[in-house]
């Protein structure tokens, strides 16, 4: 199964599909190994069967697959049907699929067709957001910011402050690439004018950009995130747009875009992971709503002092979210702290 997990991790473009790997073994020998390569493409089981020299070799063989094989017609025919047809004798499954369309049905189909099934209940440390999404019916939310040692994310004045160095920047690009949507508040658009794209990496499915504003009609479309670079930008606004929108921009309207509603809307759009990238007010809203599962903060060896902007500040009584897993990494002269929420 460990080889199957290693295979699964090779799938870099699975988007909202899980990463899945499979290995076919017969008489103590690995005959084929493969993975789900790309969203919409063949699943790991089929890719692996296709790698056999002769399909007849599958007869009587064992298959190790990291996730329960699917049993429904989606973008591809059900894997269980193919696994059954070719005569696989036993299937070892990493974990049952948390997606209700599949969950338990794939296992049942295999057993009903006289295939021995063993479930290992091991995630292999992959598909964190996928599993979270189906268990919690919302995306896994990571709040990320760079700050000075006195907890400030910008100096005074309406300009962007570059806080951390090159290594932290590169790491933040990787973090973006691991999320399906990136959310920012309106002031961050105006002050930082970020592009919110993943640099230095080719991505088949880059994260969509989401910005929350009061009134879309007051938003200037000259900012970088509204440029038509092939990546979608979704604006959550309290008003309908009276103007023609740039080609890649969509507006979703409701009169109270609270974090719960933002997250609910993204969940309906199958977004399994959300990166909240500032600013201070928007982060405060998410903390107040208790909607923070992970924090990634990059801390620079600097003090800003004065009235510079704290990382999380809103007009609320303070609340508390406790985190249990902490990882600290040194990145150049900066520190990265990663926190995972206590269960
Ligand atoms: N160091 C870092 O990592 C980092 C990252 C990002 C940003 N920043 C800094 O953070 C600063 C911006 O932070 P900020 O706290 O001033 O602003 P912000 O959080 O970016 O945006 C807040 C504004 O967005 C709109 N908004 C937020 N939530 C909303 C909701 N639920 N419904 C409707 N509108 C909503 C509101 O606009 P209105 O009040 O206009 O209605 C609100 O004032 C900038 O200086 C930027 O440089 C730093």
TrEMBL record:
Segments forming domain CMP/dCMP-type deaminase: 1-109
Q: Which superkingdom?
A: Bacteria
Q: Which GO terms describe its biological process?
A: riboflavin biosynthetic process
According to UniProt, this protein's pathway is: Cofactor biosynthesis; riboflavin biosynthesis; 5-amino-6-(D-ribitylamino)uracil from GTP: step 3/4; Cofactor biosynthesis; riboflavin biosynthesis; 5-amino-6-(D-ribitylamino)uracil from GTP: step 2/4
Query: What does the entry list as the binding residues for NADP(+)?
Result: 146, 188, 192, 199
Question: Sorted alphabetically, which Gene3D superfamilies does this protein's record hold?
Answer: Cytidine Deaminase, domain 2, Dihydrofolate Reductase, subunit A
Q: Which GO terms describe its molecular function?
A: 5-amino-6-(5-phosphoribosylamino)uracil reductase activity; diaminohydroxyphosphoribosylaminopyrimidine deaminase activity; NADP binding; zinc ion binding
What is catalyzed by this enzyme? 2,5-diamino-6-hydroxy-4-(5-phosphoribosylamino)-pyrimidine + H2O + H(+) = 5-amino-6-(5-phospho-D-ribosylamino)uracil + NH4(+); 5-amino-6-(5-phospho-D-ribitylamino)uracil + NADP(+) = 5-amino-6-(5-phospho-D-ribosylamino)uracil + NADPH + H(+)
Give the cofactor note text.
Binds 1 zinc ion.
Q: What's in the keyword line of the UniProt record?
A: Hydrolase, Metal-binding, Multifunctional enzyme, NADP, Oxidoreductase, Riboflavin biosynthesis, Zinc
Per the entry, which co-factors are needed?
Zn(2+)
Q: Tell me which residues this entry annotates as catalytic.
A: 45
**Carries keyword Membrane?**
no
Q: Where does substrate bind?
A: 176, 196, 277
PROSITE patterns the UniProt entry points to: CYT_DCMP_DEAMINASES_1, CYT_DCMP_DEAMINASES_2
Q: Which CDD domains match?
A: Riboflavin_deaminase-reductase
- Key word Mitochondrion present in the record? no
For this chain, the family text in UniProt reads: In the N-terminal section; belongs to the cytidine and deoxycytidylate deaminase family.
What is its biological role? Converts 2,5-diamino-6-(ribosylamino)-4(3h)-pyrimidinone 5'-phosphate into 5-amino-6-(ribosylamino)-2,4(1h,3h)-pyrimidinedione 5'-phosphate.
Q: Which PANTHER family match?
A: 2,5-DIAMINO-6-RIBOSYLAMINO-4(3H)-PYRIMIDINONE 5'-PHOSPHATE REDUCTASE (PTHR38011:SF7), DIHYDROFOLATE REDUCTASE FAMILY PROTEIN (AFU_ORTHOLOGUE AFUA_8G06820) (PTHR38011)
Q: What protein name applies here?
A: Riboflavin biosynthesis protein RibD
- Tell me what organism the protein belongs to: Companilactobacillus ginsenosidimutans
Show the taxonomic lineage: Bacteria, Bacillati, Bacillota, Bacilli, Lactobacillales
């Amino acid at each position: 199964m460990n080889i199957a997990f290693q295979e699964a991790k090779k799938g870099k473009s699975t988007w909202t599909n899980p990463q899945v790997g499979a290995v076919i073994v017969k008489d103590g020998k690995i005959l084929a190994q493969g993975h789900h390569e790309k969203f919409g493409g063949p699943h790991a089981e089929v890719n692996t069967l296709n790698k056999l020299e002769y399909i007849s070799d599958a007869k009587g063989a064992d298959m190790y697959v990291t996730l329960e094989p699917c049993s429904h017609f989606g973008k591809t025919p059900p894997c269980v049907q193919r696994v059954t047809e070719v005569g696989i004798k036993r299937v070892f499954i990493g974990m049952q699929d948390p997606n209700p369309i599949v969950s338990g049905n794939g296992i049942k189909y295999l057993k009903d067709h006289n295939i021995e099934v063993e479930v290992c209940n091991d995630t292999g440390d992959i598909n964190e957001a996928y599993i979270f999404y189906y268990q919690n019916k919302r995306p896994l939310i990571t709040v990320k910011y760079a700050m000075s040692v006195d907890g400030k994310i910008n100096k005074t004045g309406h300009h962007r402050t570059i806080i951390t160095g090159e290594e932290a920047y590169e790491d933040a690009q990787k973090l973006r690439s691991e999320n399906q949507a990136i959310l920012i508040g309106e002031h961050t658009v105006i002050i930082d004018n970020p592009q919110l794209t993943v640099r230095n990496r080719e991505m088949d499915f880059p994260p969509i950009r989401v910005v929350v504003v009061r009134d879309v009609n007051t938003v200037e479309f000259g900012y970088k995130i509204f440029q038509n670079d092939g990546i979608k930008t979704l604006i959550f606004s309290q008003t309908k747009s009276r103007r023609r929108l740039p080609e890649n921009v969509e507006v979703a309207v409701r009169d109270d875009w609270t974090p719960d509603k933002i997250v609910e809307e993204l969940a309906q759009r199958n977004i399994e992971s959300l990166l909240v990238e500032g600013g201070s007010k928007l982060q405060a809203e998410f903390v107040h709503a208790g909607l923070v599962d992970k924090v990634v903060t990059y801390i620079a060896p600097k003090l800003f002092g004065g009235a510079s902007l704290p990382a999380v500040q809103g007009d609320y009584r303070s609340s508390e979210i406790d985190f249990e897993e902490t990882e600290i990494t040194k990145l150049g002269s900066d520190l990265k702290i990663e926190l995972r929420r206590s269960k």
